[in-house]
Amino acid sequence: MANVATFGEIMLRLSPPGKELLFQSPRLEAVFGGAEANVAVSLAILGHRSRWISVVPANPVGEAALRELRRYGVDVGAVVRGGRRLGIYFAETGANERPSQVVYDREGSGIAEAKPGDIDWETAFAGMDRLHVTGITPALSASAAALTLEAVEAARARKMSVSLDLNYRAKLWKYGRPAPEVMREIAGRADLLVGNEEDCQKALGIGAAADLAAGRLDPKLYEELTAAVMSAFPNLTRVAVTLRESLSADWNRWSAVLRNAAGFLAGPAFEIRSIVDRIGAGDAFAAGLIHGLASFETDAQALDFAVAAAALKHSIPGDWNLSAEKDILAAARGDRSGRVRR
Description:
Order of helices and strands: EEEHEEHEEEHHEHHEHEHHEEEEHHH
Number of domains: 1
Mean pLDDT: 94
CATH class: Alpha Beta
CATH topology: UDP-N-acetylmuramoyl-L-alanine:D-glutamate ligase
Strand content: 15-25%
Number of strands: 15
Number of helices: 12
CATH architecture: 3-Layer(aba) Sandwich
Radius of gyration: 19 Å
């Protein structure tokens, strides 16, 4: 098993019941979530030593967030207590032709205002083998971007592996620097890169001739894309691209591809209908891939596991993938009937 540190923000997630519109009824359901915290929870459930690093306000909301992470076995001992508030996001679940909606309220959060020097990386990374970051934290503010780069450079100095999920969020890149200018600098220090076609285009400036809005995605189109990414960043040993075909808010097709030094791999395809919650599926994929690369003999097995992990996340409410390894392996091996197990 690996010892993995993740660095980023956790937020309070507020959602209307079921598939109601925001404030359609005077009730919101509260859970916690955030890309890097989602990965940390998945890895802890899968048996890894998982540490989440961030800046969290010293108030009851911050305490509740840390308590939830501890409940799933995540180490939060390196979290810095500070900042004015915890970020919030409102998530409205779509249905049929109505898309899901996310509204952010995270300006002035502890991590958005954090800056280089605020975290003692020598202590935070003690005993860790890998650092996982995403493109969300650098999108929050110039200081958060500088702090993310500092984290990656500190990890490389300790000879830790670095994984980066591009996670482009158009609503967040508002402080003046274009995403590729920031993200290419971070990607140049990673060994594992995860994203989708839009992430590669908008965060790195590298695109593929794929139409995300129509028909089935052809995995062969991504041979060229992944080759271009690895050529642009020779430090990378693996590039994984997730493939999502959204036929409606309730019905998606899901798969992924991976390129390594030996060649190009295509993962299994899942037909996902009656989606419960798709938020966090990409994080479930990233965690599944990290787990698979650390636990299985081949990259093909790791890719199959990661695709299945993300597929199962679509059935679980909230940000976190709570699936056990045995259930993910069963789905990866073709057990997808949903029959009751007795």
